[in-house]
Amino acid sequence: MTTIDGPRLPPASGRPATSLVVLLHGYGADGRDLIDLGAYWAPLLPDAAFVAPHAPEPCAIAPVGRQWFAYVERNDRERWTGVEAAHAALDAFLDAELARHGLADDRLALVGFSQGTMMALHTGLRRRAAPAGILGYSGIHVLPAERALEAADARITSRPPVLLIHGDRDEVIPPVALNRALITLRQRGIAVEGHMCHGLGHGIDEDGLNLGGQFLAHVLAAR
Description:
The longest helix has 26 residues, at 76-101. The chain has 6 helices and 9 strands; from the N terminus they run E-E-H-E-E-E-H-E-H-E-H-E-H-E-H. The chain has a single domain (8-219), classed as Rossmann fold, CATH 3.40.50. The chain is 33% helix and 17% strand. The strands form 2 sheets. The chain has a 7-stranded mixed β-sheet, sandwiched between helices. The protein has a two-stranded antiparallel ribbon with strand order 4-5. It is α/β, with parallel strands linked by helices. It is globular and about 50 Å long. The protein has helices at residues 37-41, 76-101, 115-124, 149-154, 176-187, 206-219; strands at 8-9, 19-24, 48-51, 57-58, 66-67, 108-113, 133-137, 162-167, 192-197.
């Protein structure tokens, strides 16, 4: 199994971490693309540690950057094969990072962008214990072919709260993916909310950052 790693930010408070936020980048980027979100959210999450792992594979179509899985046709079959193949490495990484800080799964939040959102949803719903929450930007809830749905759903072992945020001018992943995900996640018993950012393409704007930070602060509130 591939081992993954990436940049980290310790809690801004200087105290031991009471929660862990894992930032999963998109196709062709790497962990450095998202790690600065930790600094942005630090005022809301002063006791959270942040880590942004580099995806396990070099990007197939660029000299730099990483991929959780390769794209050729960009269809549901390809995405399902991809999230399945990358799941074990990410799952093991989450176990290791939680052990590093001495934290349980209910102190973990997953944040994804684009392909990273696909991974956050796929792996987050298949953890042995539910994370505190999943925040996804500009992503897709990946499902297998109809004939494989029952078996795939049987592997859903956790149902954390989810917030999905998408731009209404996204030119990479169509905005309709947000409504589709809201439907398919709710069908599987997931408490999910969605927000469409007006005038936004394939990215994260200040509105999305603020909503995401509030969501993380809520799900990771001290118990």
